[in-house]
Write a structure and sequence with these properties.
Blueprint: H1 2-19, E1 25-32, E2 37-47, E3 50-56, E4 62-71, E5 74-81, E6 84-93, E7 96-104, E8 114-118
Antiparallel strand pairs: 1-2, 1-8, 2-3, 3-4, 4-5, 5-6, 6-7, 7-8
Length: 120
């Protein structure tokens, strides 16, 4: 009986892992800037639920992704800019990611939702 329960649990984990999104690769989109739309590029590397990589800043400089996670169709990560943390949380749907952005320790507010598309 215990063996059957273990096998069932392992099968459930395998199915969950197979259904989880893999966001590894290059993603592009735009966000609202103070006076214009700003192009952004993310280069994600996913290992299980851990997410690392970079997001290009307004001047094109890569900013390191911290505390990145992908769990099922949910994604989250933080970018540090000076004394400010910019928290990104969102949903993955195929080759599109919708992110909500929250700024902590800065002027507040944010650019609104960001939609990223997988670069082909």
């Amino acid at each position: 009986m215990r063996r059957m329960i273990r096998c069932g649990a392992l099968l459930a984990l395998a199915v969950f892992a197979a259904l989880a999104a893999d966001v590894t690769g290059k993603w592009t989109g735009e966000m609202n800037g103070p006076n214009e739309r700003i192009s952004i590029t993310c280069n994600f590397k996913q290992d299980g639920t851990k997410l690392t990589g970079t997001m290009d800043g307004p001047e094109g400089e890569p900013m390191e992704i911290k505390d990145g996670k992908v769990e099922g169709d949910r994604i989250s990560f933080t970018i540090a800019v000076n004394d400010m943390s910019i928290v990104h949380e969102g949903t993955i749907k195929g080759d599109e990611i919708t992110l909500n952005v929250k700024m902590e320790g800065g002027p507040g507010g944010g650019p609104g939702p960001i939609t990223l598309k997988r670069a082909k």
